[in-house]
Amino acid sequence: MSEAEVTASELRVNGERCKLTGAIELPRPKPEAMVFSFAIPLSLLRRGYNVVEFHPKQACKIVWVEIALAA
Fold it and tell me: Residue 22 pLDDT more than 70?
């Protein structure tokens, strides 16, 4: 998926829409697929399980979802 296609899609965490912050480049070893970052307010996260929903405008394959907390 291109960044424009991801921008046209919708990502929700625990029912709340999150903003795309852009494509990111990970250090090696890294996935072959493009990697995108979204801003997730800490107030949306819950202890234990969190629900991540991605609603693309076209069919796609999600390779990995990770929630990283910034210090």
Answer: yes
For residue 35, tell me if it sits in a domain: yes
Q: Count of CB atoms within 10 A of residue 5's CB?
A: 13
Residue 70: band (very low, low, confident or very high) from pLDDT cuts 50, 70, 90: confident
Q: What is the dihedral of CA 49, 50, 51, 56, to 10 degrees?
A: -140
pLDDT at 10 over 90: yes
| Domain containing residue 24 | 3-55
Contacts of 17 (CB under 8 A, 6+ apart): 10, 11
Cβ-Cβ contacts under 8 Å for 5 (sequence gap 6 or more): 56, 57, 58, 60
